[in-house]
Design a protein that fits this description.
The protein is an alpha+beta fold and 275 residues long. The protein contains seven helices and 15 strands.
Length: 275
Amino acid sequence: MPPIEDSDDVLHRAQVFSLGGYPSQRVLIMILKCCFHAPLCPQHVSQIRWHSNPINSDLVPGGKACGLHTSVINGLAAFMSVANSSDAKRHLASPIAASDVIKLLSLEKHPEGGYYVQTHKQKEQNPSPFADGQMRPLATTIYYFLTVDNGIGLFHMNKSATMHVHHQGRAEYTLIYPEKPPRVEKLILGPNIEVGEKLQLLVGTNVWKKSKLLDEDLELSKNDPSMREQVGCLISEVVFPGFSWEDHKYLDKKELQLLWGGEEGWQEWLPFVKE
């Protein structure tokens, strides 16, 4: 591969590999490594960012000085800043505005936060192994929707398992497993699978769960009013055995503190519990 002349040259080659679209971080680093026949050095790696995350370490083995000219790096960093914003819009853009989604799907405000409507409830019932053998439908299904104006689902727990299926937008999910010490897991339900977002999420029985729109997406809707109706997250939730309010409970401050057994760390989650 011929030597790189400037940052425009890098981006041109990267876009060719990306079929004219915005290049991924992997494509950009591949171009740079091939041209310089060496991995990028750490200070250059830290300057090129993709979706607010540093470039994966597996893309820069060795970490030796690569001799990449500062002007090339600066150009790439500026480009990626613009690409991040455009890419966020591309992945967040919903085919239907939030207010129309609520209207067309007949959604109502959910007590947890967000909006919902039940769409299916199996007529057949079985004893639930998670509810002391009480009879429950085989499964129930709802739409669940977070919007800019109603973008937090408070911590709660279901005795039944729940499969979350992505439709549009994206949201951050936090799961707290009641172990000693409690284990916290975060992930993003969204379409951007090349950076690790999930199209499905299975939450097992007796796991605390909350959801919220991403801060960077809310900031985007604040800075760009045209995105206000586009930022959100629409999913389906399939609960099996079927949902019952008897199997549901909210996390409150007292139980949150008990989870941490008197240790520090619980305060971070206090804004997301039921008062």
